[in-house]
Design the sequence.
């Protein structure tokens, strides 16, 4: 565009000098005068606009003419003006909130997450999940595993200390009994009692043998008594297991019902449960167990994040798609996220607006004169060359009009 504008100016100069002789000849055609006047005024207009455009960025012909090279000489003031414009028009909390009021940020995020490779141009979700997985692995590797495990343990312990588990356990037990879901628990307890008795038959016989008197032991009745006791216990457990209406089963249910009520309403029972919970949380063995579990979890997460053969990436992509559908369809969720986004943006403008403005201002100030001149000229230079072209043509039209007017004077 610069060559076009300069070429047009040179063409007008050539036309001017070519038509100057014929235009002043006594027998010359009037058209030569109009053409010469057009070229002369066009040269003046083109040169004036060349000087004006050049003076914005540098000294014309290298001459230190006052009020030229305006942009390089005033780049600090330009930086302050840009920063002030940004501060007044974009980083005011009320302006940010107003501009974001009509934006559905959540819906836009949902559309992006749901869109496939054909909409996004490539599989952006894969890059997001790969980057998130790698970042997760880097975080887990960079942090001290013992310290992180202790922090997680302390957080869980703190939450468990705040949680009153006694009423919760009571309500769960009561709900199970209401829905008849406690029967498998009772059956399991009975089977456990039978297996325990079977594993300890010799112990039961030894107890009966020691407690029997010498006459019974001499006659061998203690062995028959032991056998009868064990058979009676096995028979009793079998009857309780197969008979849903057995009295002992009712007794167990009454005990469970009372336990559920005590867990919810009896202060003494609740205190005992809370004491057991505290002892369990503070037990060093539990702490060691948790550290082992945490280390296995940490190493598994790092391995899954780094390996392309695991299901982690696929799970994360599915989670992103599900999140996208939720953001698109759930208006309540959209309102919450959009409100959060507006508050966050307004908060950033309030807290960090001055720092952002300072960053812009200092960045522009650090640019050298050549850099800022080149960037601005590349941004608007094409339009500035159109100004030169228009100035050349408009100047020529004005010159031709003046020549016409002077012909009648």
Sequence:
């Amino acid at each position: 565009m610069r060559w076009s504008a300069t070429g047009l100016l040179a063409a007008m100069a050539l036309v001017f000098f070519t038509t100057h002789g014929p235009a002043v000849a006594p027998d010359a055609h009037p058209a030569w005068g109009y053409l010469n006047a057009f070229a002369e005024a066009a040269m003046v207009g083109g040169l004036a606009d060349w000087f004006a455009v050049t003076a914005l960025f540098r000294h014309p012909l290298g001459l230190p003419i006052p009020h030229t090279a305006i942009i390089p000489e005033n780049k600090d003031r330009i930086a302050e003006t840009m920063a002030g414009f940004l501060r007044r028009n974009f980083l005011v909390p009320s302006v940010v909130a107003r501009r974001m009021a009509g934006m559905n940020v959540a819906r836009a995020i949902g559309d992006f997450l749901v869109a496939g490779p054909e909409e996004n141009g490539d599989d952006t979700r894969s890059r997001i999940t790969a980057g998130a997985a790698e970042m997760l692995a880097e975080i887990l590797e960079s942090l001290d595993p013992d310290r992180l495990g202790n922090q997680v343990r302390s957080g869980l312990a703190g939450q468990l200390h705040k949680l009153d588990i006694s009423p919760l356990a009571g309500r769960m037990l009561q709900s199970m009994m209401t829905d008849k879901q406690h029967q498998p628990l009772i059956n399991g307890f009975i089977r456990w009692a039978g297996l325990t008795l079977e594993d300890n038959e010799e112990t039961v016989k030894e107890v009966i043998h020691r407690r029997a008197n010498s006459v019974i032991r001499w006659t061998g009745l203690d062995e028959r008594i032991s056998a009868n006791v064990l058979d009676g216990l096995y028979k009793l457990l079998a009857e309780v297991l197969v008979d849903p209406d057995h009295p002992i089963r009712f007794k167990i249910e009454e005990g469970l019902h009372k336990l559920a009520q005590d867990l919810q309403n009896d202060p003494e029972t609740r205190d005992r449960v809370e004491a057991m919970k505290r002892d369990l949380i503070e037990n060093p063995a539990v702490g060691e167990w948790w550290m082992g579990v945490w280390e296995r979890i940490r190493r598994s997460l790092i391995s899954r994040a780094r390996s392309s053969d695991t299901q982690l990436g696929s799970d994360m992509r599915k989670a992103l798609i599900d999140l996208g559908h939720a953001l698109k369809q759930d208006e309540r969720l959209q309102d919450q996220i959009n409100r959060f986004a507006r508050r966050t943006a307004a908060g950033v403008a309030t807290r960090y607006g001055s720092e952002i403005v300072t960053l812009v201002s200092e960045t522009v100030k650090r640019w050298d004169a050549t850099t800022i001149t080149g960037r601005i000229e590349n941004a608007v230079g094409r339009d500035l060359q159109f100004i030169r072209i228009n100035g050349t043509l408009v100047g020529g039209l004005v010159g031709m009009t003046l020549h016409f007017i002077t012909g009648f004077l």
About this structure: Residues 23 and 29 are 7 Å apart (CA to CA). The radius of gyration is 46 Å. The chain has a mean pLDDT of 76.
